[in-house]
Design brief:
With about 375 residues, this protein is mostly helical. It has one domain (about 35-365). The protein is about 80% helix and about 0% strand. It has helices at about 1-10, 20-30, 35-70, 70-110, 110-145, 150-165, 170-185, 190-210, 220-245, 260-285, 290-295, 300-315, 320-335, 345, 355-365. Helix 3 packs antiparallel against helix 13 (about 320-335), helix 4 runs antiparallel to helix 10 (about 260-285) and helix 13 packs parallel to helix 15. It is globular. The termini are close together.
Length: about 375
Amino acid sequence: MRSTHVLMSGILRDMQPEAVSIEHQATTTQQTPSRSQLEKRVLRLAWPVIGENLLQTMLGVVDTILVASLGAVALAGVGAALQVIYVTTAALSALSVGVAVLVAQAYGAGRLVEAGALARQGLFWSVLIGLPITVIGLLLTPTLIGLFGLAPDVSQVGIDYLAVTMSTITTLTMMLLIGGVLRGIGDSRTPMIITAVANVINVIASAALIFGWAGLPALGAVGSAWRSVVARLIGAILLAGILWRGRNGVRAGGGGLWWPQLSVLRDILRIGMPAAVEEVLIIGAIASLTPVVATLGTIPLAAHRVAINVLSFIFTRYRLWIGSNSIGRTGRWCTASGRGPCCRADCSPLDGHLDGRTRCSIHRIC
């Protein structure tokens, strides 16, 4: 992290220190937490994230029910397109995990101006990374859907759906990254609330655009994709506004660098990439089953989509998000305790209670 601290040293000069949050003050005066205390802290921070992911999973279930009413072709085409989106989202999770760690370390040490500057850097990079991915994704949409070997009618639904959904990658990247920043400063409830609001908009817009309610055009399966455009745009605007105004003494609209810094991006990716690669491998393995199932016909492929939704209710991203929150908590405690770059033993009380992905990231912080 040396490059990031060197970069941010100029920000801290000639600036009055901001008040450190209550959470930081309490953390600095406590003794080393026991195992049970750490478990309680992780669970207290993680439950809103579990709720957030439950809401996202429920949205997928509701969306599947709505699209299923259009028939097997629509359900199979949307399911194939969503596999591409899931893999893309998993890759982008590197930004969320990385920025959460950097912000958590600065926040835990009481460097609130630096934490705000890092949050702003993350916002810049979410746009600079999201826009090229959107353009490339739109250009490659027919090729990506073609990899699944679908029937022509199913393939056309998948292409139409993916072309619309790809346009939301930038706003999706912003939501992932801002959520990571907020979790890094101990606020996991706000992303959950914004997700709940976006989900309500999602369900209403999806039904209206699929079936043509309230005078809107009946777009069929593609209407389900357009609802994500509306919901993600509103969600990104709300989260960006909250972060810009500030939370727990950290605000992206504060002083500091207003130009993207490659050194910050390198630190973000160095921290977040291992977790993202593992997530891509897991979701990619599931997506690789789609071409196999497609050889059995459209109806089995539609049934496969339903089964994936049921599986997501149990599996999906819970481990990753619990891990990212425990990383934020550990990062704040390690730096706030005055130990500087903490050693492996400082983080070891969490071992055995979280998955290997989390331990790998925690030890990388250490």
